[in-house]
Amino acid sequence: MAEGMIKIRLKRSPICTPEKHKVIVRSLGLKTLNRTVERPDTPAFRGMVAKIPHLLEIVREEIVHQPKSVSPEPVPAEAPVAHAPVVDPAERPAAEPATPAQDAVEPEPVEPETVKE
Questions:
Q1: Is the full-model pTM beyond 0.85?
Q2: Which of 7, 69, 74, 77 could be disulfide-bonded to 59 (CB atoms 3.0-4.6 Å)?
Q3: In which residue ranges of the chain is pLDDT below 50?
Q4: Neighbour count for residue 50 (Cβ, 10 Å)
Q5: Torsion of the alpha carbons at 5, 10, 14 and 17, rounded to the nearest 10
Q6: 59 within 8 A of 1, measured Cβ to Cβ
Q7: How far is residue 19's CA from residue 25's CA, in Å, rounded to a whole number?
């Protein structure tokens, strides 16, 4: 992040807010939720954020410092993965043809009931 700049993020929707709030959001260049813009760190921009803190937030980036004396450890090579042997389709045994189920039972026909008068 450059010196003298702030990052501003739109964290809530300006729908159902006063028109003045919507104008501030648009003047900052924010159009969609979670969009972040970088603006100069001046009292004018800080004042815009202060007017609608429920819609905007100033994003703070944490910089992680790594000691320069520590060198990264080499990543060990992975062991080879055993795969299933590849079989030529011509050498595969032929599949058995599908047969109808021998235990299949056909339903018995139902006789229509007669009405007695």
A1: no
A2: 7
A3: none
A4: 10
A5: -60
A6: no
A7: 10
Residues 6 or more apart whose Cβ sits within 8 Å of residue 78: none
Torsion, Cα of 90, 91, 93, 98 (10° steps): -20
DSSP per position, the chain: --TTEEEEEE-S--TTS-HHHHHHHHHTT--STT-EEEEE--HHHHHHHHH-TTTEEEE-PPPPP--TTPPPPPPPPPPPPP-PPP--GGGSPPPPPP---TT--PPPPPPPPPPP-
Q: What is the pLDDT of residue 94?
A: 67
Each as own residue / partner, the long-range contacts of residues 26-34 (CB below 8 Å, 24 or more positions apart, any chain) are 28/56, 30/56, 34/9, 34/10
Rounded to whole angstroms, the Cα distance separating 94 from 97 reads: 9
Contacts for 5 with CB less than 8 Å, ≥ 6 apart: 38, 39, 40, 41
